[in-house]
Amino acid sequence: MPRFSIIVPTYGVEGRLPLALESVLGQPFGDFELIPVHEAAVDSPAGAISAAYAVRDTRVTPVESPPTGGLSAARNAGLAAAHGTYVLFLDGDDTLTPGALRAIADRLDETDDPDVLRFAHERAHWWEGGTTVVRPVGPDAPAWSAAYRRDFLNTRQLTFPIGHFTDVGWNGLVALAADRTAELPDTVCVRHLLRRQGSRLYAPGAHHLELLDQVELVLARAAAGQALTEALFGRLFAIVLRSLAHPERLPAHHRRDFFRRATHLYGLHRPTGFQVPTGHLGLQHRLLARGSYGGFRVLHAARRAAVGAPAALPRPRTPLARAVRAVRRRLPLDPNLAVYRAHRVRGVGGDLAALHAKARELAPRVRSVFLVAAEAVDQVPHGAEHAVLGSPRAGRLLARAKYLVDDADLDDLTDLTDLSELGDLGHTVVERPGGVHVRTSPGTPLKATGLDRSAYPAVTAASGGPAASAALLGRVDRWDFGLSANRHSTETWERAFPGRYEQLEYGCPRNDVLYTSTAEDVARARRTLGVPEGRKALLYAPTHRDHSPGHEPRLDLEAFCEAVGEEFVVLLRAHHRSAAPSPRASGGRIIDVTAHPRVEEVCLAADALITDYSSLMFDYAHLDRPVVILAEDWEVFRETRGVCLDLPAAPPGHVARTGRELAELFRDGSYADVEADALRAVFRERFCQFDDGRAAERVVRRVFLGERPEALPPVLPLAERAPAPPFTPPAPAAPAPAAATLVRS
Asked: What per-residue string of b and e applies to 328-343 under the rule 16 or more CB within 10 Å gives b?
């Protein structure tokens, strides 16, 4: 029997779940079983993550809970499967602090195994800019801030009450039943994440009525024979009064009934001799006891007015901006209009073009309009409408469209003029009820992005500083969906762009062609780019360096071509913020493809990829062709630009530290040897999770057609996918037969 059973509900936290599980498995105290609980669904992402950990560590024993049972059902399923002497709970997006289990075990020994041991936890603010330590505060502490003796729970038949606010009911029932409790007040054992978007529990809705159900459950249990202490009564109604202080959380027609029911419970169960608190809280108690709903509303309004007065001061907006936004908010929403807003530099290709093509096929009722820079009008897909970014027509379309598909580069905030209320009115997005905003994926992140960049001064200064970060959050709040290619991306987006949007782990629509293209498509791409017959094409795609004043590629391409021999040509894809060099004496062996509108076509044409830290490596890996990393300045790049994974430790192929090493890999052919294949296989298993050629279809069906996630085409396992074939030179024609000699008989 293990000392601890640690139960981890996993619904809706797949992006951070590995952090939670790792925080448990990494504990020096190893006498535990770890029970992740996921919904009983065939394609549960959390179930797949938990199963992978179970293969790795026998202490991990995943269990399933009913699909609609919620948090309480998940915890109860974990309790039913637990074998430990003590039970702990951990939310799937929280973590145990290092050494927590040892500290808890030692304190249990010191206090002779009490029924309940409460410990301190740390609230970590979503921006990771500060923490608050919360010491044990009794029965209204979260369920995950205590260890419970399993025999005590079984003997008293304690389970989590079904419904919302289950912690209120659970903690009240435990407080009534426990004979011996202890505390560990000075050791933080759980790091609890405070999400920027807040808890779903406190979102507006009729579910707030269930708070009184939980309170009544505890009060009824006490009335049936278990002593109700003044402290427990006071804490229960402190929670009720906090809810009443936020009437906007309840539908208007339920607020008065909620107050009346709370008054009834207060009068029915108030302990004899209960001392009303002093101050503002005491005044609320007295108004609740009298049933004075009108008086409570006046008190609440006065307090909110005093607190909110500074925030209510008018913000500086131009009269024109106010007038235009007011008019646009009144324009009728067009349910069949989709606007595709393209990044100023990257143009119209990629995810936008792929989604548009699939929407025309599956949702022909939807009218598509591309918003593009004036110089990119010729890139608009054939047959699609367009408007120029910044024009009045673009502004009207943004205001009226039900669907906005946006590939704006949030790592380049200085390029987005709609981040300011005073910016160009042709760029400004007017948030409308019923609108759907989809943010496409800029690629799997290697570099620090979004709010993660705040730790790197050189990067934040170049992109606008704190004001740009605040504006970024305003944009994130508009998103309804974000696309993700793998779970690493999901975890990074949740941290770097915190918001209420739904992550669609469907892959990148632009990568569909990497699976659906044929050998003829590959040959056509090579002809279009001018790859000579009989040569191998090496795609060189360097990234930009914010800390470096120069924008030239660091690799001397002429010297590289000279070193590797005539067998190879280089396709140069410079970063859009860099200047591509002018080939000098390369003999036509350097082909500049920087301006080519479709990077997917460039990838199809290439026999191998050379890059430093460009996210293109994750897309190219889908082709299962050689990738070589040139990491001359990895340490400097990591410290100045910031990264979210250790590339040299898990590369997609061989890593060269100098141009000479790079040339040697291609000169002797080792860039494509068995070791390179093995590295690439591990890399693809980790980062090529969801792309299988049907990403665009999944997005269109989910967003434009409103299909449920379970009805979408499942992702094909990696081993069963067939990427576009590499280029194979045509076999030489057979020689014509020699003419027969004419012999006269």
From this structure: beeeeebeebbbbbbb
As a whole number, mean pLDDT of residues 721-737 equals 73
Task: Pick the more confident residue, 442 or 321.
Answer: 442
Q: b/e string for 148-176 if b means 16 or more Cβ within 10 A?
A: bbbebbeebebbbbebbbbbbbbbbbbbb
Which has the closest alpha carbon to 218: 240, 236, 242, 244? 236
Would residue 138 be called left, alpha or beta, if left means φ above 0 and alpha means ψ between -120 and 50 degrees? left
Tokens describing residue 501: 């949007």
Provide the β-strand partners of residue 539: 571, 609
Token pair in block for residue 630:
């040139």
For residues 102 and 392, give the distance between their C-alpha atoms in angstroms, rounded to a whole number.
Answer: 64
Residue labelled with tokens 């920087």: 594
What confidence tier does 433 reach under pLDDT thresholds 50, 70, 90?
A: confident
DSSP state letters, 86-116: EEEE--TT-EEPTTHHHHHHHHHHHTTS-SE
- Which of 456, 464, 449, 457 is closest to 417 using CA atoms? 464
CA distance 221 to 714: 47
Average pLDDT of span 630-642: 89
Q: Which of 230, 173, 239, 245 lies closest to 211, judged by CA?
A: 239
CB 372 within 8 A of CB 427: no
Check residue 733 and give its pLDDT: 56
Pairing between β-strand 181-194 and β-strand 116-125 as defined by DSSP bridges: parallel
149 and 86 Cβ atoms separated by less than 8 Å: yes
What is the value of pTM for the model shown?
A: 0.70
Pick from 20-34, 262-276, 399-413, 425-439 the range whose average pLDDT is largest: 20-34
pLDDT digits (tens, 9 = 90+) for 663-705: 999 999 999 999 999 999 999 999 999 999 999 999 999 999 9
**Nearest alpha carbon to residue 475 among 649, 571, 660, 341:** 341
What are the C-alpha distances in Å from 157 to residues 163, 174, 180, 391? 18, 10, 17, 67
H/E stretch holding 662: helix 659-667
The enclosing H or E element of 36 equals strand 32-39
The two structure tokens encoding residue 382: 């054939």
Q: What is the DSSP letter of 375?
A: G
- Mean pLDDT, the chain, rounded, equals 84
- What angle is formed at CA 146 by the lines to CA 142 and CA 150, rounded to 5 degrees? 120
pLDDT over threshold 50, residue 741? no
Q: How far apart are CA 250 and CA 212, in angstroms?
A: 13
C-alpha torsion 133→135→139→145, nearest 10: 60
- String of DSSP letters for 311-323: GGSPP---HHHHH
Please give the order of strands across the beta sheet that includes 590-592.
590-592, 568-572, 536-541, 608-611, 627-630, 655-656
Cα–Cα distance between 162 and 141 in angstroms, integer? 18
Q: Which of 111, 98, 104, 59 is nearest to 86 (CA)?
A: 104
- Specify the higher pLDDT residue, 229 or 326: 229
How far apart, in whole angstroms, are the C-alpha atoms of residue 77 and residue 475? Answer: 39
- Residue 630 φ/ψ, nearest 5 degrees: -100, 100
Query: 418: Cβ–Cβ under 8 A, 6 or more apart, which residues?
Result: 424, 427, 428, 429
How far is Cα 525 from Cα 521, in angstroms, rounded to an integer? 6
pLDDT of 585: 41
